[in-house]
Amino acid sequence: xxxxxxxxxxxxxxxxxxxxxxxxxxxxxxxxxxxxxxxxxxxxxxxxxxxxxxxxxxxxxxxxxxxxxxxxxxxxxxxxxxxxxxxxxxxxxxxxxxxxxxxxxxxxxxxxxxxxxxxxxxxxxxxxxxxxxxxxxxxxxx
Length: 142
Fold this sequence. Notes:
This protein has helices at 7-20, 63-75, 96-101, and strands spanning 2-6, 26-34, 37-46, 79-88, 107-114, 117-126, 133-141. 23% of the residues lie in helices and 43% in strands. The chain has three helices and seven strands. The protein has one domain (2-141): Cytidine Deaminase, domain 2 (3-Layer(aba) Sandwich), CATH 3.40.140.
């Protein structure tokens, strides 16, 4: 699947990862699905709710965070279409933890942040059988 978003969205996601380094940062992607593509309209950064000593390699979003994102999306006639998070000093590919906690039908954007600097963002989608992720194509739009 294609994930369509602006350079500004990518910059915001990567800036959040840099700001939360050396911990993982996270947030939501709001948008809609059109013509077989996820079209991101906005990104919503949130605090990592994981206990402080585990934030360097784990993130957690609370039920309240999900409710806030869903409410924000509904008010703007959008949907919650994905989640983004950073991997401090690790590649931008899903971990076993990511797979174990992924929700179906959402896009996952992961940013690798090395020594405090974002080094790339990749998009992923959990397979229906939950065995792994497939990489989605990021496509920047104006």
